[in-house]
Amino acid sequence: MSRISADSKGVYIIAVTPFKDDGAIDTASVDRMVDFYFDKGTDGLTILGIMGEAPKLTQQESIAITKQVLARSAGRPVIVGVSAPGLAAIGELTKAVMDLGAAGVMVAPPGSLRTDDQIIGYYRNVVATIGEDVPFVLQDFPLVTGVQISPRTIGAIIEALPSMVMLKHEDWPGLDKISELRAAEAAGRRRISILCGNGGVFLPEEMARGADGAMTGFAFPEMMVNVCKLAGAGNLDRAQDIFDAYLPLARFEQQPGLGLAVRKYVLEKRGVISSQAQRRPGAALGTKAVAEVDRLLLRLEKRLAELA
């Protein structure tokens, strides 16, 4: 199993966790989902993230899902979210998944961090816990974590901790943050990979600012794959045309508190998972919302036919 590095690029899709209607893990859908993501051209997977309902899983379930996904991925890179309130849990899960062959781990800051020194100190403690040989992703998602991490603080972490090889960039607004980080690299600082989240709704602009790809879970991964490839080849106009076709659905999926329900509904409609069920607590789509998503899917199909 290859490990992530500062040169990792492309789409590392944030995978959902499929459940049956009774809340049990749907192992058949896990295999089908892994196949679907790679068939659509993704470069890797990221499992047990925030939108993967990781806090609703036991440690044993997290390890079991990781083992299954790694086996199905057949050597292709899988990043595992290991964020937890305590360092002991992070260390235990990291050891388990890296022993199984994970490509790296992702760690979000706990909401208790307030100052730059606290944030830098926290990630020093993370590395001391998981080991300097484990490549990790810093998840910068202040809209959910409540932790604001400035480019200067990210830079201090990059310089202090060589095993921080990737930033999952989900600040909003955050385009200037990408530019500032890349400018520092142009001035001589160590390079890191930057993959972007937020449902992909800023992906063309993020790629133009110097991002390496996407790490988010939009239900049409082929959109992100195509946009990243086209943007990487310098064909920004065509990338924008493809992106614009999907934007109404991506926008609808981006609703706070409802986004995962939309994503799972679409994945169920696409035959990827057997049920849109979430473990409690979780939002559900009402009748009107379902009709709105169905309308957007029909319009997307029509627009893609026009673009083809």
From TrEMBL:
Species per Swiss-Prot/TrEMBL record: Rhizobium rhizoryzae
Binding site for pyruvate: M215
Enzyme class: lyase
Similarity comment: family membership: Belongs to the DapA family.
Enzyme Commission code: 4.3.3.7
InterPro entries: Aldolase_TIM, DapA-like
Domain of life of the native organism: Bacteria
Single GO MF descriptor: 4-hydroxy-tetrahydrodipicolinate synthase activity
SUPFAM superfamilies linked to this entry: Aldolase
Entries under Pfam families matching the protein: DHDPS
Gene Ontology cellular-component terms listed: cytosol
Keywords recorded for this protein, A-Z: Lyase
Protein name as catalogued: 4-hydroxy-tetrahydrodipicolinate synthase
